[in-house]
Amino acid sequence: MSGPPPKGWQAIQDEVLRRIHARDWPPGHVIPGEVDLAREFGCARATVNRALRALAEAGLLERRRKAGTRVALHPVSRATVEIPVIRREIEDRGHAYGYSLLERSLAPPPAGPRATLGPGPALHLTALHSADGAPYVVEDRWISLSTVPAAHDAPFDRVSANEWLLAYAPFTHGDIAFSAEAASDSQAELLSTAPGTPVFAITRVTWDHTRAITVVRLIYAPGYSIHSVIGGMSADPRAAS
């Protein structure tokens, strides 16, 4: 009889976080090694490593070579903004999710993204996410192929870059800006609204240490509201400081 299926890294992260909060593993406690945890959770050691690395980057664990991994004595408090999976965000609001890839090309990025990604060709994607068939957000994204070469052949006609990158391109930190804008003619057409209508925009850059992964502009349909985690500790590597 086979055992339980292997746990994903996010499930392992959640369980480690639960043990820390429940004081099963109190501050300063040296937790089991990756090999032991992989055996307990029935998964690859690399999966455990990813979960523990995310918690260390969130300031909840301290990892030292030859000394093991211990619960931080003084966890770092960070103000964070979560990067959601748009599909889940729509489904969590009780709507049916839809996705359409509108454009995919390889080209030198324009001035703004080029300042971050560099002058070489990058992957440009434009997509529309919908909720119950109504436009929800336009995703205009540039991806650095030098940082994420696997993106070149990723199936973005079936899965959004938002979701694919969060699954396959872990990041260390990000920069994010929010603004209210007037919808351009092209944005208004995609969002089924009138040109000049106020819309909410997010511009975000995510990084793998010193290498930029992606620059994205998200233009939301009128009526969008945002929820974020501010001023607390987050163990979620989808959160950008």
Automatic annotation (TrEMBL):
Residues 6-74 form the HTH gntR-type domain. Keywords: DNA-binding, Transcription, Transcription regulation. The keyword DNA-binding applies. It comes from Roseovarius litoreus. Coiled coil: none annotated. PROSITE patterns: HTH_GNTR. GO terms for molecular function: DNA binding; DNA-binding transcription factor activity. This is Transcriptional regulator, GntR family.
